Amino acid sequence: MPKMIFVNLPVADLARSTAFYEAIGCTRDERFSNDQAAMMVWSDTISFMLLTHPFYAGFTSKRIADARETSEVLLCLSRDSREEVDAIVDAAVAAGGTGDVRPPQDMGFMYGRSFEDPDGHVFEPMYMDVEAATAATGQPAAQAA
């Protein structure tokens, strides 16, 4: 079985958040979705678990952070091109998110932008030309494990 990651995110409005994540390219997995949670599949190994605040609170004794006021995590999403970076930010804005919450970064070999979902969770889609990046830093290209 491949290693997988499930990013659990508290959301104020499950229907709104589900529509947002569908708009940026996720697919809802009905097997693990109900009126308290929606499993939004990003890839074969990454899913976002959108949890209503009361349901999320059942997994922790800590106060739920307001992601609009407090940085909790920065989620970097790799994309296959600069155009795909732009497209996902545009889709996020069209679906009710906030685009470019920090200035875009263009290092030539790496290009990144950012957006917030409706609850303030920050995503940083990026494209990197690994060969150009390793050449620019003088580091040898890493071998896959």
Automatic annotation (TrEMBL):
Residue ranges of every copy of the VOC domain listed in the record: 3-128
A Pfam family:
Glyoxalase
One annotated GO molecular function: lyase activity
Record carries keyword Lyase: yes
Q: Does the keyword Lyase apply?
A: yes
Q: Which UniProt keywords apply?
A: Lyase
Query: What protein am I looking at?
Result: Lactoylglutathione lyase
Which organism does this sequence originate in? Answer: Sphingomonas lenta
